[in-house]
């Protein structure tokens, strides 16, 4: 499974971030697979943001749930992340990852998002 994140490198505070994870090598409806978004702010650890599973059910980190939406397009083999009301502290490298349950066996290379005016 190959994952490729894409999106804007720079977003202004209060704006909405939209990221795309393009999947190849497997179907995003593969039974028991979960497709997660994780981020890593500069100098800090990884933070799990949320996931969408093979059936389309979504799961979110409680701390980000109010600002985050994860969705997918089966025909395009794409998983999306939207986060609104961005703050400078949302600056991070954003990754998508996938695997059976929450194993996250497969990772994209990540995309850096900077929140700055």
- Gross morphology: globular
Q: Provide the structure class.
A: mainly beta
Number of helices: 0
Largest sheet: 7 strands, mixed
Report the radius of gyration as a whole number of Å. 13 Å
What do the pLDDT scores average to? 95
Instruction: Summarize the helix and strand pattern as letters.
Output: EEEEEEEEEEE
DSSP strand (E) fraction?
over 45%
The count of DSSP E runs of length 2 or more, i.e. the number of strands, is: 11
Helix % is under 10%
* Unreliable sequence segments: none
The termini sit apart by: 36 Å
Secondary structure blueprint with pairings:
Layout: E1 2-6, E2 10-11, E3 17-24, E4 33-40, E5 47-53, E6 58-60, E7 68-73, E8 78-83, E9 92-100, E10 106-107, E11 111-115
What does this structure look like?
With 117 residues, the protein is an all-beta fold. The chain is built from no helices and 11 strands. The chain has strands spanning 2-6, 10-11, 17-24, 33-40, 47-53, 58-60, 68-73, 78-83, 92-100, 106-107, 111-115. Strands 2, 4, 5, 6, 9, 10 and 11 form a 7-stranded mixed sheet that branches. A 4-stranded antiparallel sheet has the order 1-3-8-7, with no helix packed on it. Strand 5 (47-53) and strand 6 form a beta hairpin. It starts with a strand and ends with a strand.
């Amino acid at each position: 499974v190959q994952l490729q994140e894409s999106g804007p490198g720079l977003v202004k505070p209060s704006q909405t971030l939209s990221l795309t994870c393009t999947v190849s090598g497997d179907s995003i409806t593969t039974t028991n697979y979960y497709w997660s978004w994780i981020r890593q702010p500069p100098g800090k650890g990884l933070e799990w943001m949320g996931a969408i599973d093979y059936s389309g059910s979504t799961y979110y980190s409680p701390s980000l749930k109010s600002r985050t939406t994860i969705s997918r397009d089966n025909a395009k083999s794409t998983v999306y992340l939207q986060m609104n009301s961005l703050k400078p502290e949302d600056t991070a490298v954003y990754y998508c990852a996938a695997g059976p349950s929450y194993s996250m066996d497969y990772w994209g290379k990540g995309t850096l998002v900077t929140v700055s005016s």
